[in-house]
Amino acid sequence: MTSLMLLVTILAESLAKTNNLPGLGWFVLLDIVIVCSSVAAILIVDHTRTFALERLRKRRNADIGTYTRFFLSNDAYRIIRVILFLISIIALVLNVILNWTSISGFVMGQVLTLCRKKKEPSMELTDEEVTAVKGVWLRAKTEDIGKKILQTLIEKRPKFAEYFGILCQSDKLDMNSLKESKEFHLQAHRIQNFLDTAVGSLGYCPVTSIYDMAHRIGQIHFYRGVNFGADNWLVFKRVTVDQVTKGVTSTQASQANLLEGTKEPEVDNHPLQDMQNPFSGENCLARLGWNKLMTVIVREMKRGFLEEAMRNCKEEADPTYVG
User: Fold this and answer.
1) Does residue 54 form part of some domain?
2) Is residue 193 part of a domain?
3) pTM for this structure?
4) Which stretch of DSSP H or E encloses residue 142?
5) SS (HEC) of 296-316
6) Which residues are the signal sequence here (predicted)?
C-alpha cells in the first residue's frame, strides 16, 4: 500500500509539472493520494498495535506504563481510526474547496456541451438534400448565378464592392458601371466556380474537402484584406441561399397558382428582411439543404480568416513563434 501511494504521488507530481492534465485531473489524483494515505496510515497503526500486543504476550511479566496500556487498548484503537478517518474526510473537503473553480468549470462545460448537442440542428446533409441541392444548382449555374449573388450583395451592402476591389468610375453606386468592370466579372466567376466545386464534391468526396476549401478561402481573404464583419458573413450566406433557390420557390408557387386560378404573387425582392430567423421560408428540401451547406461553408471561411489573423498577431508579438 505504501508503494502504491508513493507511485501515485510521483505520477501526480510529474503530470502536474508537465501540464499534461488539467486542474480537474490533478484534483482527482490528489483525492487518490489522500485516500491511499489514509488507508496506509490505518494499516500501519493496525500492524503496529498487533506487533506490540504479540511482544507483550511473549513478555508476560513485563511491566508496561499506563499510557502504553491505554494506547494498546481497543478503545484507543477505535479512537485512532476515527481520527484518521476524520482527517481524510477533512482533507477531501479542503481539496474540493480549493479546486472548486476547476470542478465547477468542468461541470458547467459538460452541461453546456450536452445542451448544445441536444439543441443544435445537424448540419450533415441527407442523401435527399444532396440530390435537391445538386438539382437546384444545375439550373442556377446556367443563369449566371455568380453575377446575381455578387450584384445582390453589393445592392444590400455597397461595402462589398470595396471588399472585392470592384471600382466604380463615379462616386455614386452605379450597378451598370460595376457590372461592366473586369473585377466584377472576375469575382462573380470566383464565387460561382467555388460553389460549383463544392456542390460537385457532394456525394463523391468527403465533406471535409469542402471544409478545407472554405477554410483556405478564409485564409486568402485575410491576406487580401477582405475583412468581413460578423453581419456580412450572414448576409453572404442568406443572399447565396436566396438567389440559388429563388427559382425553385417561385416556380412551385406559380404552379400552385395556375392550378388554383389565382394571380401569381410578386417575387420577394427583400429576402433579407427576416434576417433574425435563419430558417424562415425554408419549406422545401432544396432550400434546407442549401442553408446547411452555406452554414458550414461560412463557418469554415470565418475560422480560416480568424486563425490566420491570430497566427499573424502571435508572429508580430514574438518573431520566434512558429505556427
Assistant:
1) yes
2) yes
3) 0.52
4) none
5) HHHHHHHHHHHHHHHHHHHHH
6) 1-16
